[in-house]
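Interim report, section 4.2 (structural modelling).
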Amino acid sequence: MSQKPDFMEPCELEIVIRPPLKLASLQAHPERTIVVVNGIPVGGPEVVVMAGPCAVENEDQIMSTARAVKAGGGKILRGGAYKPRTSPYSFQGLKEEGLKLLAQAREETGLPVVTEVMDARHLDLVSRYADILQVGSRNMQNFTLLEEVGNCRMPVVLKRGMSATIEELLQAAEYVMKGGNHQIILCERGIRTFETSTRNTLDLNSVPMLKKHTHLPVIVDPSHGTGHAWMVPALAAAAIAVGADGLLVEVHYKPQEALSDGVQSLTPDNFELMMNALKAVAAAVGRR
Amino acid sequence: MSQKPDFMEPCELEIVIRPPLKLASLQAHPERTIVVVNGIPVGGPEVVVMAGPCAVENEDQIMSTARAVKAGGGKILRGGAYKPRTSPYSFQGLKEEGLKLLAQAREETGLPVVTEVMDARHLDLVSRYADILQVGSRNMQNFTLLEEVGNCRMPVVLKRGMSATIEELLQAAEYVMKGGNHQIILCERGIRTFETSTRNTLDLNSVPMLKKHTHLPVIVDPSHGTGHAWMVPALAAAAIAVGADGLLVEVHYKPQEALSDGVQSLTPDNFELMMNALKAVAAAVGRR
Amino acid sequence: MSQKPDFMEPCELEIVIRPPLKLASLQAHPERTIVVVNGIPVGGPEVVVMAGPCAVENEDQIMSTARAVKAGGGKILRGGAYKPRTSPYSFQGLKEEGLKLLAQAREETGLPVVTEVMDARHLDLVSRYADILQVGSRNMQNFTLLEEVGNCRMPVVLKRGMSATIEELLQAAEYVMKGGNHQIILCERGIRTFETSTRNTLDLNSVPMLKKHTHLPVIVDPSHGTGHAWMVPALAAAAIAVGADGLLVEVHYKPQEALSDGVQSLTPDNFELMMNALKAVAAAVGRR
Amino acid sequence: MSQKPDFMEPCELEIVIRPPLKLASLQAHPERTIVVVNGIPVGGPEVVVMAGPCAVENEDQIMSTARAVKAGGGKILRGGAYKPRTSPYSFQGLKEEGLKLLAQAREETGLPVVTEVMDARHLDLVSRYADILQVGSRNMQNFTLLEEVGNCRMPVVLKRGMSATIEELLQAAEYVMKGGNHQIILCERGIRTFETSTRNTLDLNSVPMLKKHTHLPVIVDPSHGTGHAWMVPALAAAAIAVGADGLLVEVHYKPQEALSDGVQSLTPDNFELMMNALKAVAAAVGRR
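Predicted structure of the assembly:
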C-alpha cells in the first residue's frame, strides 16, 4: 500500500522547532542557581545527600531510618507519603498520616523533608509538611501539576521521566519556572533501555550535559538508577565524580521487610560505609 | 569501589511480583468487552475509525475537518481542547472554548467526540462535553487521574505511555476499572526507541499480545506511531490486519497551517483515499 | 569536574554527514528492483513466502518440514547450517552436512534455498549450495563480509541489525552493491526495545520508510520479530498489509523438539492455516 | 486475525536457559584475572589509560599523538588501521600501512599498541604488529572471529555491542576463552538508547555488574560513550570512581582535521589536564 503514489506526499524531515528555554537555560542566566533548603545549599561546593525510605510505613520505621540518615551524614530526609504504584493493589502510601510522621522525624532530627506530590489537589496539604516537593518520573510531563508547583514558592526536586530526553527534562523545568518558582533541583534517576539486569540504566552522561545547558543544580538517584542496593555505593561515587550536586538514596532500617523497593534500599550500616567512602571522591573533584 | 566486599550484599534477582489483574484480564472475564459510544460498538466486528485534528483551533477548522471525517466514513471525531505540550510556550489548546466547538461539530455531524482530559480538576467540565474521555500517553501512569476517571461512567481511550510495557498498560486499565468504570479502549500509539526517522516505533506486536491477556478493545494510532502523514495509510492497514478494533487518526483541513502535528495529519482527500483502501483489508480479516 | 572551564570546548552539534547512497537509493535508481530466484520474482506483485526451520537438524526434520512448506504454498526454503548462537555451548549447526541436506530438500521439492553465511571464508562453500545467501542481524555491520558478498553474483537477504537504524541498513546494502552485487532483499526482523513480553519489537514502520528511500525489495520476519509462534500469523498479515514483498517464517515439523527457536516456530498445520488466511490480505492490497 | 482460536497455542513464557559461563564467571574462577601487556598489568591496583586517535592517518599524526599520549601518562597507544565505517565511501583506514606506523610509534615511545581486527583473515597480519587485539562493538557477536581470536595467545579488548546485554557480552568472552585465550579485557563503550544529545548512553551500571559476575578486567571508553570531547573528562572520572580498571580514550593532535571521530577526540592539552585530574579520583577509590 505504501507504494501507491496516491498516498505519497513529498517527504520533509520533521523538524521540531521548540520555543527556547527562556528561564532554565544557562545562556539566559549565566550564574549557577543554588537552592537553599533550611540553610542547606544545593548546588554549591558541598554534595548534599538526601536519604530515607521509599515509603513512610510506620513510626518506628521512619524514626529509626531518619536517625540512621542523620548519623550517616545525610542532610535531607526523603520518604514517600503518596506513592505512585504500577498496580492499584500495591501499597499506596500512608498519605496525610505519612506526612505527619515525616514532620515528626524532622522535629526530632532537624533534617528537612523531601516528599512526592502526585496531584495538584494535594499540593496545599503536602506543602504544609514538606520542605522540598518532589515531582516523580511518571509526572515529569504532568503539565498541570508542573504549573501548580510553579505557583508555589518552595524548592522542588524534578525527576527525569523514564523515557524523557534531556531536552524534555529542561522544558519541564521551564514549565515550573514560568510560574515564578525558580528553586528547582533536577534529578537523573535512570532511563529505560533494553538492559534487563538492572532496573534502569543510570545515564550519567546527563549530568554534564544538563550542566552545560542549565544553571539549575543536578542530583542523581543511584537507587532507582540501578535497582540493587549493592550497586548504589559505586554509582553514587560515579555520580559525584561526574559532577552531581547531590544524591537521592533509599535507606531502610530493615530492607527485607520494606513494603516497596527493599531490594534497592541500603541498610543503615551500608549507608554509613558509603558516606565515609564518598568523602574522598568528593574531595578528589573539589567538592565536600 | 564495587570490588570492596564491605558493600557487597548477596545478590538476589529482583523479581517484581505484582498483584494480578483482577478485572482487566481475559482469564478473569473471558467474554470480550464491547464499548458502545452513542450506539457505535467498539470491539465488535466493525473497525471504528476516530479521526480529527490534533487540537481544536477555531470554528472553521473543526467544522470543516469534522465534515471531512464524516464524509470519509469516520465514526467518531477526535480533537484536543487541553493539549499537553513539551514547551510551556507552545499552543496549549482552547480549553473550554475548544470543548464548545467540539460540541457544535457533534451537533452538526452527529459524530460523538473523543477528547483528552489532562487533570482530574477538569473532569467535570470535560465530561459534560465529551462522549469518550482520552487519557494521553504522558498521563498513563498519572494514577490519581486514572482513579478519578474510574469514578466516571463514560468510555475512556487509554493511550499507552511512550515507554510503558504492555503489562503496565494493563495495570493502568486496572486502576480505572477498580473504580467501577469498565468501558476502556486501549490504544497503541508507538513507543520510544533508538530509531530517529520516525517519531515513534509503532508496536503492532502489542495488539495480539494485549488481546491475549485482556478482554478490552484495542485501537491503534498510526499518526503518532509514525509521525508522517504519508505513512499513516500503510500502518493503518497493518493495524487492521493485525487485529485492531479501531484507529485513531489525525486529519486536518489544512495540515500546513496546523498549530500542532501538521506533518502527521492527513488531508481530507487523503483520509478519504485511505478509508476506501482500508475496506478491503478489513474484509480480508473478517471485519468491516 | 564537568564544570571546570578548562575542559570546556565550544559545543557543536555532532552532525554526521555521511556519503549519500549512490546505488541503493530510489532517487538514484527510480525503477524498483525485482530479485529473481530460480524464476521466482521477489519485489513484484506476488508476496513471496520463505519458510523452514531455524536450523537444519537431521534428514527427517528438513525433508518433512520442506514438504510442509511446499504444501502450504511457501516458495523458498529457509534453514540454517551455520548458526550464530549467543553461547558457545549451544548447538552451532550441522555446517556442510546441513548444506547437503538443504540441497537434498531442494532436489525433492524444487524449492530454492536461503541459508546464512556467517564468515567470508565459508562463502565459496555456502554459495555452492545456496540459492540466496543470508547475512544475519549480528553481521549487518560485518563490513568485510558485506564486501565479499558484494563480489558474489547471487541474491542476498540482508537482515536489519537488532539496533540498526533504517539508514544504517541502507548503508549496509550500499556496501554489498558497491562490489557489483545488486540482488539484495532487505529484511525487517524486529529491533531491541524495553518491551520484554516479546522477543523483539517488529518495526513495521520500516517497510514504507525503506520503500520511500530505496528500490530494493523488503521482506519481514515475524518469527524473530515476535518470538511467539501464536503471534506470527497476525504480524504476517500486518506485514503484507503494510507493503512487504515477502515473509521469512520459521516452520518446524515438531517445534517442541527443535534445537533452537522452537517457541517461535509454526507447526505445518498452523503454517497452512496462516497461508490460507494471508491470501485475502494480499488481495486486499493489490498483491497475490 | 489474532482472535481466531485456530492460531492460538497455549502461551508459555519464553525462558531462554543458556548454558552457564564455565570459564568467564567469577564463581568458576574466584581469583580476578590480571592481563599483563608488555609488563603493564590491567586489572590490578593501577588504572591503565589506553589513548590515541580513532584511526591512524599518517606518520606525523600518529607520531605526534603517540608522544602526547606518553607525555600525558597514557600507558598503551590505541589507533585503528582497519576501520569499520557505516558508509562504504568513508575513510576505511590505512590497513597494513597503518599497522606499520603503529609499530613505529611503539618503537619510539615504548607504548604497546591496541588495534582492531575486523576479520579473521587479517588476524595473522594484525597480530604481528599489535600487542592487544581489539574486537569492536559491531563484531561482538561475530562468532567465527571470536573463535579465531580465542586461538591466539595475546590480550584482547572485547567491546560491548551497542545493543548487547551484559550477559551477551559475557557469553562473547566465553567464546574467546573456550579457544584457550583467557587474556580478555571487557570494554563498556555506551549503548544505544532514545537519547539523542549524546552519541551513546554510557552504561556505568555495567562495570559493577560485570565485576560481580566475572573475574575479567573491565575498562570504559568515554569517547564513544558520549560522542563529545568536552564530556570525556567527567565521564572518565566517573568510570574510575565506579570501579573501572582502565580507560580507552580518543586523542588526536588536531581534532578539527581528523578523518573520523574528531568531535569526540581530546587535544593533547586537554588529555594532559584530564590525566592530572584523574589521579585524585583514582586515589579516592584506592587505585593509582
